[in-house]
Design brief:
With 119 residues, the protein is mainly alpha-helical. The chain contains five helices and two strands; from the N terminus they run αααββαα. It has a domain of 73 residues: Arc Repressor Mutant, subunit A. Strands 1-2 form a two-stranded antiparallel sheet.
């Protein structure tokens, strides 16, 4: 399934409006409707009921929203955790000192540091 269709469905379901979802996603309203219809056709189920210029999630739509919410929350959590790992791995230390310190003391200190914190 295309991430785009799921994101479009999820956004429409959150705001309960094709027009508002289109604005939020920087898409045209017909493009949003098309994406949702494709998803409905894929599962051969209606995801929204349309009554008096309002839309409501059907039972299938509620289930789809439940799982889409889980998917997007897990995706956000994964991105956050991977960013933390990336930031930890890309940490740098700048050291400075006089010529004597840099030549004689710093190598000894770095040796101990690298034993404790290998990269």
């Amino acid at each position: 399934m295309s991430d785009k269709r799921l994101l479009v469905f999820y956004t429409v379901a959150k705001v309960l409006s094709f027009t508002k979802a289109a604005k939020k996603l920087h898409m045209t309203q017909p493009a949003v409707t098309f994406q949702v219809r494709q998803l409905e056709e894929k599962f051969d189920l209606k995801l929204f009921d349309r009554k008096q210029n309002r839309i409501y999630l059907t039972e299938a739509g509620q289930k789809a929203f439940y799982y889409a919410d889980k998917i997007f929350n897990l995706n956000n959590e994964m991105q956050h955790e991977l960013k933390i790992l990336s930031d930890e791995q890309n940490t740098s230390i700048n050291l400075g000192g006089s010529t004597t310190v840099a030549q004689y003391l710093l190598p000894l200190l770095l040796k101990g540091f690298l034993k404790e914190y290998p990269f």
